[in-house]
Each structure stands twice: as C-alpha cells, then as structure tokens.
User: Fold this.
Amino acid sequence: MGNNFENKVAVITGAASGLGLAIAQKLTEYGVKLALLDTNKEALLKVQAQLQGESQIYSVDVQEEEQVKTAIQEIQKEFGALHILINSAGIVGDTNIKSHETETRNLKKVLDVNFIGSFLTSKNCIPVMLQQDYGRILHIASIAGKEGNAGMISYSASKAAVIAMTKVQGKEYAETGITINALAPAVIRTAMVDHMPPEQVNYMTDKIPMKRCGTLEEFANMASFLVSDENSFTTGFTFDLSGGRATY
Assistant:
C-alpha cells in the first residue's frame, strides 16, 4: 500500500500523542510528508525528532478559526499541496457523570474541540483539495457517537456530530475526487483512556465482544487504508473498529 502515498502531504491534528501520533508514525513509514498540528509545541518537537520523513510542526488550537486558517495557508505554501486531512484532536471531558450533573461549559468545550475543530480544519482544507480534484479526509469519531456511552454525554454528542458531518460532507463532495469518511473506534488504549476513571473504562470494555481494548497499531493500519488511493469508492461512511461491539 505504500506506493500510492508517494509525494502525498497529510495534515494531522492532535499529532503530539495518542491516535494522531500513531497515524503520523504509520504514514511517515510510507513516505508521506506530514504537517503536524497540536496545542503542545514541545511535544510536537519531540515527535518530529522521532519521525524519519519530512515533517513540519504547527502550534494550533483547532477551536480557533483564525489559527486554523493561517496554519492551512502556511502548510500549502510550505508543501505546495495538501492531499490528506486526519482529524485526531479530541478531548473526553467529564466522564462517569449523569447528564443533569454535567456542566454546560464542559459540554461546550468538548463540542468545540471535537466537532467544531474538525469542521474548521475541513472547511479550510477542502478548497485546496477542490483545486487539486483530489483529497482524503478522515474524521476520528467514536463508537460512543453511534451508541452513546452512559456517563459521557459531552463526548458521545460531539462524536455523533462528527458522524453527521461526515455523512453531509461525503454527499456534498462525492463528485470531486475527495472522499470524506470517519473511523469510529471502541476503546483504544491511549494516555487519554488511561486518565479516565477505571469504572468508565470497564463499562466500555465490557461491551466489546473481544473483551479488550484496540491497539494503536490496529488503529493506524485501518486509518492509513482509509486515506489511501485504494479507498476510492467509499465516502460519507463511518467505519467501525470495535472488536465486534458494532454489529450493524
């Protein structure tokens, strides 16, 4: 699969850790040139030093439209093209808490990062992709966005919004050479998951027929296919990575 990534440029948000870092490491093996976005510049510098291929880092808060717009302009100027966008930036927010106890500001914060952030990056990348008649966009959703995890209304709602956006954008740009899909993992073992209450993690893991978390390697393998040339006739779809939890 590596050959069809030749000379491709990928923008990855949340690239300093977790899912974003995993897909960055996988794509650099295929020779993809990387534009790595995150709020944590120091962590980005460490990541960049570990990667073998060409990469540039951008300290960006995806909630801030002007920051996103400026970064995409700089990326286009630096690399001369922009073929792939992977929206991995995300936060969980408060968990193991019922809806009526959830703080409104926490709900808004999670929506801003997980949904609005993905909207803003795609809003600014799509015009570039339209000029090229080519693009691959992958929004990282969650099984929580399909099924709803009790105790996680903010996160579940934000990922449901990401899934709805994927369906809309997939239809809107289906004739342009741009595919726009989402990936909905069940629990993937990341630092973000490690910081969640054990009872919340157990609640989610117990629902997985394989009775385990997914691995970052499994995530990166599937994500890299979804942004490859080989994935050319699927758009507006949300792929599952759930160990059997999603059966529809």
